[in-house]
Amino acid sequence: MSMLVEFSVVPVGKGVSISPQIAEVLRIVVASGVSYKANPMGTVMEGDWDAVMSVIKKCHDVAMINAERALTTITIDDRKGKEERIEKKLESVEQKLGMKLKK
Amino acid sequence: MSMLVEFSVVPVGKGVSISPQIAEVLRIVVASGVSYKANPMGTVMEGDWDAVMSVIKKCHDVAMINAERALTTITIDDRKGKEERIEKKLESVEQKLGMKLKK
Amino acid sequence: MSMLVEFSVVPVGKGVSISPQIAEVLRIVVASGVSYKANPMGTVMEGDWDAVMSVIKKCHDVAMINAERALTTITIDDRKGKEERIEKKLESVEQKLGMKLKK
Amino acid sequence: MSMLVEFSVVPVGKGVSISPQIAEVLRIVVASGVSYKANPMGTVMEGDWDAVMSVIKKCHDVAMINAERALTTITIDDRKGKEERIEKKLESVEQKLGMKLKK
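^ inputs. structure came back:
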């Protein structure tokens, strides 16, 4: 069983440019070995609850080392009996559309 | 250290009315003993990461017993050196406004 | 027809304490006359798309006057043939639970 | 001035598989001519408030034609003096990481 999860971590009060902090977050995601796809607004991962949540906790904790405050948002789309949805979910939409989407 | 967390769990494909499932979720929240406030769009809790996330996992798991698919959204506002923000955050806003807000 | 909508506006890079900005947002919500309920993580409103979105745009614009960057999140729960859900949605859950919830 | 916006529309009570509805949403996004990138959890667009929100309203309205209920979530990251962030935001993170990310 695996879940699809998008998350983002935003440090508050550390200035307007937060790309160094987002780089730290993505370094943790890549090092975790969990399946992921980055997008301009967050990172999508696929895995079971404990695997995915332990990565997000590490990312949130890293943001809180250097910031007084952080906002972390997590959206979970959990569906029984489906695997590799990080690839297949959009492929299924592209098939219905009869075209490739920008990613 | 405590975090403020809002979450909601929506079973997908179980029909349009989901108040029985939301009742199950709130039964778990109340039984957990974690500080909470319910609103028409979700439930706000205050506590440390492990306490709050274990409640949300239970709520998500209950939804997945009876549904093929569930969407769970979690928003975390974590701030160092502040406690009882579930009460004080809005009180601070009301002081600045010089009026009581509808809740 | 009316929708239930929760939103929050967070200025980024304006320091850790943002309650003055949240007060500005709630001043706009109250002045709009739209049905609302404030909670520690956001504000729930009920109304049609144009009414609700024009309030949220004003709130977002006010945040952007004084900040270089702002994050605004909006969650819409739209359901046909239901009114006054800002009150009735939780009442329906309380009936199923057989208890009053903290709000 | 342009904003970065991620959104998703989920019809509730229309069964577990919603890829036909997501295909309808993406057909509207593509036809709008607004800059976009699709990901497994939502669609990111870049444009001004009115352009982007009118696309999202059309997508929400299409979902409500065929469903009794729909959940639409919108996250806005608005930043002054920056353009083409739909490409540049992740490129800036990749530069800091010294590696290409999966997208």
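The mean pLDDT of chain B is 95. The interface with chain A takes residues 49, 53, 57, 60, 64, 68-81 of chain B (CB under 8 Å).
thumbs up if we can close this ticket
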